[in-house]
Amino acid sequence: MNATTDPTWAEFLSQIIAEFGCTTGTLHRLDPADRHLKLVAHQGIPEALMPIIQSIPVGKGIAGTAAERLEPVEICNLQTDTSGVAKPGAKQTQVQGSLAVPVLDGGRLCGTLGIGKLVPYDFTAEEKSRLIQTARSISAKLLPA
């Protein structure tokens, strides 16, 4: 992301999805008033899931768990996962390989950034690190007003 431009969140998310060879993605902003992650941008998410992902409690689902733990949450195959982290509706995305990271400003949670592939996939340590760095780079802009 070029620091001299300020792409819309949808453009930013689209760039990240393409960079990681993914097909889906979400960007959420933390609302400190109710401790919910509010959807800022999305790509490739079925319309039926939109009401569910508009506002996610911290601690629930993949994004909420990444926010609660303040660390990446990865699922190699969402379709067969039995960890209980992903909510049942998440399978509707058809996503298999999934990675969500917290957007942190220092130690302060600002939101989450998530990407997904339509094939089973284990993200490498380098890919996780890159997504964390990308998330950190937008943290100040994602802070609630």
Task: Give the key terms.
alpha+beta, disordered N terminus, 145 residues, 6 strands, GAF-like_dom_sf, Beta-Lactamase, 4 helices
What does this structure look like?
It is a single chain. By secondary structure, the chain is of the alpha+beta class. It has one domain (9-140): Beta-Lactamase (2-Layer Sandwich). Helix content is 29%, strand content 27%. It is built from 4 helices and 6 strands, in the order H-E-E-H-E-H-E-E-E-H. It has helices spanning 9-19, 50-53, 61-69, 125-142; strands at 24-31, 36-43, 55-57, 73-75, 98-105, 108-116. The chain has a 6-stranded antiparallel sheet with strand order 3-2-1-6-5-4, with helices on both faces. A hairpin with a 4-residue loop joins strand 1 (24-31) and strand 2 (36-43). The radius of gyration is 14 Å and the shape is globular. Residues 1-6 have low confidence and may be disordered. InterPro entries: GAF, GAF-like_dom_sf. This is Putative methionine-R-sulfoxide reductase with GAF domain. Residues 13-139 form the GAF domain. It comes from Prosthecobacter vanneervenii.
Gyration radius over CA: 14 Å
Please give the CATH architecture. Answer: 2-Layer Sandwich
Which H/E pattern describes the elements?
HEEHEHEEEH
Separation of termini? 22 Å
Mean pLDDT: 88
What is the strand tally? 6
CATH domain class: Alpha Beta
Note poorly predicted spans.
Answer: 1-6
Bin the helical content.
25-40%
| Class from secondary-structure proportions | alpha+beta
Tell me the fraction of residues in β-strands, as a range.
Answer: 25-35%
Shape: globular
Spatially, the strands of the biggest sheet line up as 3-2-1-6-5-4
State the CATH superfamily name.
GAF domain
